[in-house]
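Hey,

Quick one before I head out. I ran the complex with 2P0 overnight. Inputs first:
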Amino acid sequence: MKATATANSNIALVKYWGKRDERLILPQNSSISMTLDGLYTTTTAEFSEKHRKDEVTIDGKKVAGEELDRVVRQLNLVRRLAKTHLSAKVTSKNNFPKAAGLASSASGFAALTLAATKALGLHIEKKELSMLARQGSGSACRSIYGGFAEWVKGSHHDGSDSYAKQLAPKEHWPELAMIVSVVTAEEKKVKSRAGMSQTVANSPMYRAWLETVEEDLKNVREAIMERKFTQLGTAAELNALKMHATMHTTTPHIIYWQPETITMMKEVMQMHEEGIECYFTIDGGPQVKIVCMDKNAGKIAKRVKGMAEVEKVYVCHAGEGARLSNKELF
Ligand code: 2P0
């Protein structure tokens, strides 16, 4: 009745931005991501009569309110499948700052879903596991897989065809790197969930996002399969800027960028001009992630570490999918 799982965070190269069903977490568009080796969450879940109610601790702090409700909802999904009413104790640890635009909800809900299903003795195929994880947090469905994953948006109302699948394992492209820099580790004020919903409701750019995202998906999918770095970086950078354009033009506007974010984007452009080919991508937060080839990763990381704006740098490559672990947290 107790299990531990680790899942890595993932960064989208074509972003998930907008839902068509908020309860089931069904997206407006498909998305493609790279699972990162350097950023991960480990979660232990135990179901037992001795727990009177669900108790959740993340990074040493007991969680309450909306954060607790989201975990309890996910536990309820798993309990329903296992036909049990047992309460759970859940302890989770991230090796990076959470809720700062580094996809902690992706690794967090992927690890939670795997640990909870295993603890209750359920044997679930990856596709189904990704659909379960999706209902905790959309991007979590992609963290079930290592390497490169696509979350296929699906069209059914019940979400039965909205799941992630692997495009290529991590061994497919070890020469690709992603440098994740942290410019401010503060938790963000507008969560992605609220930002996304408001953008769909009133950004005049949202229609353009949907009209052009299929092209980005095609370019990024092909770039991954054929290991075409320039095509990958160009398409991913454009896609991130388009997503932020929808946020900048929603009312009230959402601007996740900090002055440090712009400085970092300019630095990436400068390095690129100097002949160090690299591209940026940015999610629901101020952090800039740099896509580059491994041969340049050391040089780029050194430049970035030297910037006053940057607090921390993680040099990542494609990482593993969600997996069971024997390192129990309690
Ligand atoms: C992504 N993001 O594809 C996009 C890009 C943020 C920007 O997935 O409401 O925490 O839990 O489904 O997964 C962040 O959104 O949102 C996200 P919910 P989630 O990575």
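The first strand starts at residue 2 and ends at 14.

Talk tomorrow,
K.
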